[in-house]
C-alpha cells in the first residue's frame, strides 16, 4: 500500500495531495497519498481513505474530528493510528485494524461481512473479549487505545446466569 494514490481526475495545478501516515501494530508505517480536487475537509478525506483502509467513512470522520494530530484541514500531512483486533468466529480468525474512536459495533459489522455471516444469524451472536467465555463487549462503546492486538470472539450467547 506504500504510496498508494487515489485520483478524482482533477485538473493539473489544482490538485491537493494529502499524505497520511498509517500506524498499525506489527506493521511498518504506511504512507497513503490521496489526491483531491480541492482542499479536503474531514469527510472528503475520510471518504477517500475508507476504501483504501477497508473502514467505514463515519469511523474515520470521527477519528479525524477528535484527533487534531490525524489531520487538520489546511495541512497536507497527517497521522492515523489504527488499533489491531484479532477476531475469531468458530474455527476461523481474521485480524483487522480500526480507529480507536470506532465503536465495537463496527468491528462486529466488519466481522460478520468478512466471515459471511447471514444477517439473521448475526442477530444471535455477541462479542466476547479474550475467549468465547470472556466478558461481553458493549457494541456501543469505543474500541479505545491499547498496546498489541486485542482478541475478540463472535459467539452464540450462553444460558442466562441465575443469581
Give the helices and strands, then pairings:
Elements: E1 4-6, E2 16-24, E3 30-36, H1 42-53, H2 57-66, E4 77-89, E5 92-99, H3 104-114, H4 119-122, E6 126-129, E7 149-155
Parallel strand pairs: 1-3, 2-4, 4-7
Antiparallel strand pairs: 2-3, 4-5, 6-7
Helix pairs in contact: 1-2
Helix-and-strand structural type: alpha/beta
Fraction of residues in β-strands: 25-35%
Number of helices: 4
Radius of gyration from the alpha-carbon trace, in angstroms? 18 Å
Tell me, rounded to a whole number, the average pLDDT: 85
> What is the number of strand segments?
7
3D architecture notes:
The chain is of the alpha/beta class and 163 residues long. It is 23% helix and 31% strand. It is built from four helices and seven strands. Strands 1, 2, 3, 4, 5, 6 and 7 form a seven-stranded mixed sheet that branches. The longest helix has 12 residues, at 42-53. The protein is elongated, with a radius of gyration of 18 Å. The termini are far apart.
Outline of this structure?
With about 160 residues, the protein is α/β, with parallel strands linked by helices.
Characteristic key phrases:
about 25% helix; disordered N terminus; 4 helices; single chain; seven-stranded mixed beta sheet; about 160 residues; alpha/beta
Amino acid at each position: 500500500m506504500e504510496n498508494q494514490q487515489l485520483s478524482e481526475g482533477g485538473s493539473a495545478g489544482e490538485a491537493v495531495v494529502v499524505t497520511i501516515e498509517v500506524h498499525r501494530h506489527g506493521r511498518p508505517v504506511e504512507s497513503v497519498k490521496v489526491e483531491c480536487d480541492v482542499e479536503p475537509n474531514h469527510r472528503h478525506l475520510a471518504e477517500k481513505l475508507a476504501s483504501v483502509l477497508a473502514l467505514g467513512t463515519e469511523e474515520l470522520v470521527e477519528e479525524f474530528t477528535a484527533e487534531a494530530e490525524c489531520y487538520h484541514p489546511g495541512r497536507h500531512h497527517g497521522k492515523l493510528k489504527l488499533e489491531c483486533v484479532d477476531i475469531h468466529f468458530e474455527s476461523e480468525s481474521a485480524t483487522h485494524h480500526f480507529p480507536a474512536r470506532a465503536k465495537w459495533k463496527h468491528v462486529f459489522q466488519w466481522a460478520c461481512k468478512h466471515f459471511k455471516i447471514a444477517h439473521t444469524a448475526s442477530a444471535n451472536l455477541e462479542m466476547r473479549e479474550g475467549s468465547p467465555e470472556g466478558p461481553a463487549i458493549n457494541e456501543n462503546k469505543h474500541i479505545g487505545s491499547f498496546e498489541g492486538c486485542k482478541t475478540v470472539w463472535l459467539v452464540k450467547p450462553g444460558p442466562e446466569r441465575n443469581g
